[in-house]
Amino acid sequence: MPGIVDEFIVFLGAALAGANIVALARPAILRRRGIKDVQDVGSRSRCYRNIALGLAIAALGIYLAVHG
User: Fold this and answer.
1) Are 49 and 3 in contact (CB under 8 A)?
2) How far apart are CA 60 and CA 63, in angstroms?
3) Whether pTM exceeds 0.90
């Protein structure tokens, strides 16, 4: 595979994992700052699954970049 595709796969996985980490951390950070009406994440298990999936996709992209 071309190198640009491998990098795209890595960044796509990292973006998926990062967005879900931010979604989990945001309510706690906002409550600590004193904002009262903060909506929690709808499904924590889905966030954890998406974080794991994003890390797996990023690892696959790194593997393809190194061994490709």
Assistant:
1) no
2) 5
3) no
